[in-house]
């Protein structure tokens, strides 16, 4: 059975839909800026947060019956669905990917009216499903930084098994005191906008965003044929190296990528472009370079999109898949923002400037996360 992505949305500091976000990335515009807001952290830090005007544009309201993050999910799903013909809701599953959900409800500073029970991820997901009158209980995927790709792989498998015909895969996470303080305690946040794979990289920049993909067995659901791409394969692995540190050998990522290639019945030589994880921490980027070198993929054009969106955690795999697919459709590759000089022990073909390409048939999206988890998905042009 063939499974397709037929519509999508991204809402982030770069815009309220996929077109606006892609235009910003093409133009080299980053959503990362200095955030000076003590509700997040006592000292300024670099991150990608929606400002008041951006929230107003998408009608985010503190008077709403929904939390800020739930309003992001609802906006993103509504916009993605507007690009499809009607889905049979009885055959549609909602898959939510997030690492922290409504974590802000647990803060001593929270002044809103929403019940703190919505900090439970399943309760939050049911609230979102109810808004769209979806009859099936949703699935929540919370698997550190690979949550987004895990959600896409889960949806694809359930459709292939015949349990559903369509899935709404929506990934979202927000900046919060808990998240910023946590990464600061690990000394993982850069004191400047992040620089994936660069020799001067100092760590991550966090971001908040939501991304949605409509995944289905019926390509005719897309209102425009150019929206359609095929989800060819997907695989996950866990090397259990360390609770917060990546493997030094890249074995887990290598295994996930090799399995995804095998499922797709293609080789590394067939991949035209890699949308890598690229967090800009010293150890993650080095691990990826070792894995891609071992796989014979060092010469394949590669970028990280963290320099545009920051690390959006549970949203990253979905948002970065959408931008990767968009590059495949447009036959162009976006520069890896923040990269100037190679900073890994193994060579990578990091894209340094926006460029047009002759064609792009297969692309690889990878993510890696805390706890030693790794994921890889292969997309194919139609």
Structural write-up:
This protein is α/β, with parallel strands linked by helices and 382 residues long. It contains ten helices and 16 strands. It has helices at 18-26, 52-57, 68-81, 121-131, 147-160, 177-185, 251-264, 282-294, 306-309, 316-330; strands spanning 4-11, 33-35, 45-48, 92-97, 139-141, 166-173, 206-207, 209-216, 229-238, 273-275, 301-303, 332-333, 349-350, 355-356, 362-369, 373-380. The strands form three sheets. It has an eleven-stranded mixed sheet with strand order 5-4-6-8-1-9-16-15-10-11-13, with helices on both faces. Helix 5 crosses helix 10 and helix 7 (251-264) packs across helix 8 (282-294). It starts with a strand and ends with a strand. The relative contact order is 0.19. The mean pLDDT is 96.
**Spatial shape:** globular
C-alpha-based Rg, rounded: 19 Å
What are the low-pLDDT stretches, counting only 5+ consecutive residues below 50? none
Helix-strand string? EHEEHHEHEHEHEEEHEHEHHEEEEE
Give the beta-strand count: 16
Helix coverage percent of residues?
25-40%
Class by SSE composition: alpha/beta
Let me know the average pLDDT: 96
Strand order of the largest sheet: 5-4-6-8-1-9-16-15-10-11-13
The largest sheet is: 11 strands, mixed
Total number of helices: 10
Distance between the termini: 15 Å
Sum this structure up briefly.
It is built from ten helices and 16 strands.
Topology:
Elements: E1 4-11, H1 18-26, E2 33-35, E3 45-48, H2 52-57, H3 68-81, E4 92-97, H4 121-131, E5 139-141, H5 147-160, E6 166-173, H6 177-185, E7 206-207, E8 209-216, E9 229-238, H7 251-264, E10 273-275, H8 282-294, E11 301-303, H9 306-309, H10 316-330, E12 332-333, E13 349-350, E14 355-356, E15 362-369, E16 373-380
Parallel strand pairs: 3-7, 4-5, 4-6, 10-11, 10-15, 11-13
Antiparallel strand pairs: 1-8, 1-9, 2-3, 6-8, 9-16, 12-14, 15-16
Helix pairs in contact: 5-10, 7-8
């Amino acid at each position: 059975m063939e499974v397709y992505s037929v519509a999508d949305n991204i809402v982030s500091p770069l815009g309220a839909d996929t077109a606006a976000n892609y235009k910003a990335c093409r133009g080299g515009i980053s959503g990362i800026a200095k955030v000076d807001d003590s509700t997040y952290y006592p000292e300024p830090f670099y991150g990608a947060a929606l400002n008041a005007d951006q929230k107003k544009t998408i009608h985010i309201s503190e008077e709403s019956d929904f939390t800020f993050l739930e309003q992001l999910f609802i906006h993103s799903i509504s916009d993605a669905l507007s690009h499809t013909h009607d889905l049979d809701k009885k055959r549609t599953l909602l898959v939510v990917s997030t690492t922290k959900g409504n974590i802000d409800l647990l803060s001593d500073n929270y002044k809103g009216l929403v019940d703190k029970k919505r900090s439970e991820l399943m309760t939050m997901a049911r609230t979102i499903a109810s808004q769209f009158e979806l009859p099936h209980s949703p699935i929540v995927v919370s698997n550190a930084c690979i949550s987004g790709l895990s959600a896409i792989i889960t949806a694809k498998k359930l459709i292939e098994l015949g349990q559903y015909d369509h899935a709404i895969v929506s990934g979202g996470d927000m900046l919060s005191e808990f998240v910023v303080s946590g990464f600061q305690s690990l000394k993982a946040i850069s004191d400047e906008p992040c620089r994936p794979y660069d020799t001067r990289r100092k760590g991550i920049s966090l971001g908040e965003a939501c991304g949605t993909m409509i995944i289905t067995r019926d390509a005719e659901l897309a209102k425009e044929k150019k929206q359609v791409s095929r989800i060819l394969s997907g695989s996950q692995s866990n090397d259990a190296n360390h609770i917060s540190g990546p493997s030094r050998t890249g074995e887990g990522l290598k295994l996930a990528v090799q399995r995804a290639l095998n499922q797709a019945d293609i080789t590394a030589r067939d991949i035209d472009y890699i949308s890598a994880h690229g967090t800009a921490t010293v150890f993650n980027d080095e691990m990826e370079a070792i894995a891609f070198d071992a796989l014979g993929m060092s010469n394949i054009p590669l970028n990280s999109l963290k320099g545009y969106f920051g690390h959006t955690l549970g949203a990253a795999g979905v948002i970065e898949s959408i931008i990767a697919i968009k590059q495949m459709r447009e036959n162009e590759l976006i520069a890896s923002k923040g990269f100037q000089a190679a900073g890994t022990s193994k060579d990578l073909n990091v894209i340094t400037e926006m460029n047009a390409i002759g064609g792009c048939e297969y692309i690889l999206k990878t993510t890696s996360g805390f706890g030693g988890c790794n994921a890889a998905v292969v997309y194919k042009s139609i």
